[in-house]
Amino acid sequence: MSFFSLDSKFSQIMSRVFDLMMLNIIFLIMCIPIVTIGANFTAMYYVTLKMIKNEETYIFRTYWKSFRENFKQATAIWLILLAVLIVLILDLLLVMKMPGAITYLRFVFLVLICFEAMVLSYVFPVLSRFDNTVKNTIKNSILMAIRHLPWTIMILLVNLCPLLIYVFSTTKIVSYLILLMFLLGFSTVALGCSWFFVNKIFPFYMPEEEKEVLTPEEESLRALEAMDRPSPLTDRSNDAAAAETTDAAPADAAAETASEEKSASPAEQPETDE
């Protein structure tokens, strides 16, 4: 096989790098209005999750599909969490300037800021993968982050990797890092985090017995149903059981009626459709 053939490993790697570069540029351009950052993170994770699963994707078309469908929910979640983060940072700065023992409260606010960083690491991938309300998406993200704490720490480290390199590097390396972030930094970080979600976290909530190909909507609904069974991610609801009972009652009544009619006229032959 030729080194530069379309089926070679080199060509596949370069194709993936080009896709990540396109995704990163689209992400940066669409993030210019700061209010759209949440929707853009959701759309980017929607694409990178598909990349990890080796699903064929058309970068812009797939990105725009998720951006359009999740814009309202993602924007609401982003504004809520951004407001909470700003309040926590302002409180931290205020406490650090106060004299006396009250300064020890800074550790409390630091823990809360780290906790919000965990939620931010989960909420947009979860929104891109599962259909739910704003409240339940945030709630499930919190519970997932706590439940999978070791993987959450790994995801946080991947997200903070560019920042850590920036802090502990020389000026020359920092300049290259900034260029790299503009070219494919954000999409590469999202791809790295997506590996953990696809292989270590989301499968926990996916029914193993389901092998048939499902639409994204059906897959999301079944995943959330599976999530209810093993964990308290969402409040258990009896609506589904009530609906099954309600549906079963007329079916039983119809079966009994059919049985009575059959026993009353055994000589009658069933009609056939022509």
Describe this entry's structure for a reader.
There is one protein chain. With 274 residues, the chain is an all-alpha fold. Residues 230-274 have low confidence and may be disordered. It is built from nine helices and no strands. Helix content is 75%, strand content 0%. It has helices at 9-30, 37-52, 59-97, 105-129, 134-147, 149-167, 171-201, 216-228, 239-264. The chain is globular.
Outline the biggest β-sheet.
none
Based on CA atoms alone, the radius of gyration comes out at 25 Å
> What share of residues are in beta strands?
under 5%
Sheet/helix structural class: mainly alpha
Determine the mean pLDDT: 79
The number of helical runs is 9
Number of spatially distinct domains: 1
Count of beta strands: 0
The separation of the N and C termini measures 58 Å
Low-confidence parts lasting 5 or more residues at pLDDT below 50?
230-274
Task: Provide keyphrases for this structure.
274 residues, mainly alpha, 9 helices, 0% strand, globular, disordered C terminus
Short description:
With 274 residues, the protein is mostly helical.
SSE layout:
Layout: H1 9-30, H2 37-52, H3 59-97, H4 105-129, H5 134-147, H6 149-167, H7 171-201, H8 216-228, H9 239-264
Helix pairs in contact: 1-2, 1-7, 2-3, 2-4, 2-7, 3-4, 4-5, 4-6, 6-7
Organism: Fusicatenibacter saccharivorans
Keywords: Membrane, Transmembrane, Transmembrane helix
Protein name: YesL family protein
